[in-house]
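Continuing the series of single-chain predictions for the mutant panel. This is the parent chain; the variants come on the following pages.
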Amino acid sequence: MSARGEFSSRLGFILAAAGSAVGLGNIWGFPTQVASNGGAAFVLVYVILAFLLAYPVLMAELIIGRATRSNMVAALGKISGNNIGKAAGIWGFITVSLILSFYALVAGWMLSHLVQTITDMLGQQGWSTWLVTSSVTRDIVFSALFLCLTALIVTGGVSKGIEKWSVRLMPALFIIIALLILYVSTLDGASEGWSAYLLPDFSLVMDPELLVNAMGQAFFSMSLGVGTMLVYGSYISKKESLPTLGASVALVDIGVAVLAGMLIIPAMYVALHNGIEIFTGTGELIEGPNLIFAVLPSLFDSMGSVGVYVAFVFFALMLIAALTSSISMLEVPVAYVVESHEIERRPAVWLLTFCVFAASTTIALNFNQLFVLTIDLTTKYSQPLLGLVLCIYAGWVWKRNEVLKELLQGNEQAEQGLFWKIWPWYVKFVCPVVIAIMFYLKIVN
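Parent structure:
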């Protein structure tokens, strides 16, 4: 059996965990949520709820992971002492694998658009047209390429694979976002975007829809519920203070989301200034795939000769964001197969990559029936319920003394700290109720 890995530095863990949380949803979902829900008022509510709701669940995953030094299946099995915990872990294993299967398709679109900017530079118009035209062949080819990139990183293990690439990719992501913000801000129309993003409408702060949207964004943006943070937590050194590390991850994730808004919203208003429609029929800002693959490419086209270079940098950014999330998703089933079935890491990675690719291909071949269904089943239903399960295990099933024992490993004064005075009862009583309400409201809506 392969030796268990460990992050070699605090920075390596923070960047890897933040990279897991920072995905495509942060970059195309958060900005339009802000602009459509009261501007800076939404940002304020989001930041508050990120620490009131998402941070406690994040800490549950990190503490369980480091204490058990196990994958999600084994960890919940150890805490519960029965097969019910293992079943919950397998549920998480299946959920994260399905998320990765549709995520690979979307990331494949990012990769094909990135390659299209290169073929444009080389004057290969025929290839450019094929690369940006939706087809099953294109989707399967580029999802396979993206999954291979992910697998190549994960085969390196924790310190030589995940950590090594996270400390390179995450700074690159920050630099690219910053450069694009500076460039877009010089264009006509950007100031209107800054106003829409930064000027608060506090009359919406207590709007139920805004609260539900902010709670959902806070919870899902941190990659919670499916075991990614639990597995990453299992690779943390016993010398580290978990509450501090968790807060650092939350702050970096929030920071990237806010930065993404500083790029996307001004860019959308620049597009509007150039005659490109950025609103839906109901008057809301366009978001999701239509934003990334219709509005912004039209903006790049309107920029003239410099547009293709801006497009290249932008889609490189999107690919980096996708990769930092996908490597954490693949690590969840890999950790389970390596540790529970004593398979070497390299064959385990490629076996599971092939299984995910088979699921991606099935979705691509039955796109209209399976794509939205898979997203709904995993992110709308399964993920919040798994978050609820983790709160129950951390707050009700796991012995309080065992939790404290783990926290004391990285901080001998943990018992006297504010975290220990609040978190145990908060994750036991408050988080399950809030997550259950959020889950109910999402279904009703």
